[in-house]
Batch of 4 targets.
Target 1
Amino acid sequence: MPVEIGGAPAPLDVAAAWKDGRKVLTVAVVNPTKSAVTFPLAIKAANPAGRAKLYLITGKDEMACNVPGKEPGVTLVEKAGVPSAAP
């Protein structure tokens, strides 16, 4: 179920959706720049419980890709908790 997003700072692209009967909230944030961007995340009309996970997908530049047989150019790192700033 899509979630209404408000106040996302430019140039970030932010989307969110509930799943599993509003038991899990997924928030996606895309930063199309080379600069770290931080912003406050406020979740209204919900009481978050449990553990958060961060999946950080990154590469050295916007043209990064993975090619079979070569060192990965794009990596996925899973971290427990929510960072206070970009890693």
Note: Strands lie at 13-19, 24-30, 53-59, 74-80.
Target 2
Amino acid sequence: MPPLATPLRPRPFGYRHTRTLVAGLARDGPIAPSVVDGAMDRDRFGACVTNQRAPALRPGQIVVAAKPSSHRSIHAPGLLRAKGNALIFLPQASGPTAAGSSAKGAGRRPC
């Protein structure tokens, strides 16, 4: 029986093409959704805030971000404050659910 799907080109073992969805969420809907080709890093996050998120925000809106190192942009907090917005980082997760999810492979299902 032939295989159900054959790759179009050979790929190295473990190859994954990563895309990151970045968007803001307000009461009235999403703000400046976009897809970044590759994983998010500090420079890409700074560019997303500078070019897409900050122009779409209204003064007084609060930006809440998780604490990955990619969100620790040098310019993003100053840019948001200059527009009249606040940047708040979520506290580090703790408790039984965080402890269980930090175990290697816990809660993951193969794709």
Note: The chain is about 25% helix and 25% strand.
Target 3
Amino acid sequence: MVLTEQVILSQINIEEMRSNMGDAKKAEHSHYFTGRPCKHGHLAPRTTGNATCVQCARTHSSKYQKEKNHKVSLPGKTLYKN
């Protein structure tokens, strides 16, 4: 995700996001933006549920989906034993 002024997440512009999780939760927002990179170097909003960087969550999700789809598409393999 490229961070620009045009990025809108959950109908809230990044400039309007709260800067910490506590304030975001009080305002009932689902995301907040600290302006600091996560431990993997992404400069992206974080979720208030678990403080996960949005980019890290997307990366993890896409890796999981690729692994899941690869397992399902293996020819001649059964995923479950009866």
Note: Strands lie at 8-9, 12-13, 31-32, 46-47.
Target 4
Amino acid sequence: MFLFLTQSYCCQVSSQLELWAEELQHQELVTDGNKAEQMLVMHNESVLHMQNCTFEVLQRGQELSQVCWCFHFNYFFVMLINY
């Protein structure tokens, strides 16, 4: 279940990154200083949000790696005892 949730969240973040990149490519150039400042604030908020999401995906991946390592170690230990 944890693997499925991690994979699902990873796919969501990846999709968000792709949409964000697409939006940035089609962004109009703004000559109005106030509008440009508002867009910069919104962009910075988006960057922060994506950084947080990416960091969370990395954390979940590390947790999953630790869980897998524990299962692998326990399986090896059980096999060693039964040998």
Note: The chain has one domain: 2-24+31-82.
